[in-house]
Amino acid sequence: MTIPSVTYKQFGETVVPVAPVGTKRWIVLYIMVAAVLLTTLACWNNLSGGSLIEMFEDDSDAPPPHTEYAKMARYLVHKAEWVSMGSLSTVDAIKGFPMVNIISVADSARNEKSTGTLYFYLTMLDYTAQDLHKDNRLTVMLTLDQDLYCSKNGIDPMEPTCARIMISGRADKIENGTEEYAFGSRAMFTRHPAAQKWIQTDGHNFFLCKLNITQIAVLDFYGGPHYVTLDDYMAADPDKRTEAVSSSSTGNERQIPPRFSTTEDSTATMA
Length: 271
Prior knowledge:
single chain, 271 residues, alpha+beta, Pnp Oxidase, Chain A, 7-stranded antiparallel β-sheet, 9 helices, elongated, Split_barrel_FMN-bd, transmembrane, membrane, CREG_beta-barrel
């Protein structure tokens, strides 16, 4: 009579099941297939210039290609919360010298479509308004690094590849009670809530202005600035991924409400 041998496990000991040989083979096969697919995907992406990976990236707020100068200008204007505004000084010691200031701006209410027209508040207590009252010519500069986009991507703000635009024109005061005044005020209030306190403060007498554009210079790559016409600037839509075609060649200019039209009299000074 043969007594069968019995293996006992200690109390609390866990028995680890051994995977069948066939299961191990399938695991190895899955790993090999996954490695081949990832390698193929990487090679395909390199051959396509990275376009494959871009399909999975959220580029809804990415700047347009540097060759689309009108769209780049509209893109920077629409994103801008402030500008560096240059004027001709009226201060006796530096009369006629260039002077610069930081001015809060808005081209539309937050999260609404771009208009391309910069609105801003001024007060005669500030030297910029005093300068523009004497001579309403000005130049504003906007940079892609206003939200640290360039710095975060390892691009120095002075590099041409960190896009910037210089817009020259005239400051025009907008009359209170008009449709454009309501639009511009709402645009400023949504982006700059503090502006509501400015106009309510006794003695400051803030008033709403807009910039009527004379020239647009775009520097967003090596080789010097490119000059964008006002028609092409207004026709460009920063919300679309493709550049709008110049209205001079197609007649399909993007319709801008009359309240955003530019002032024809370029000799007027700001009241």
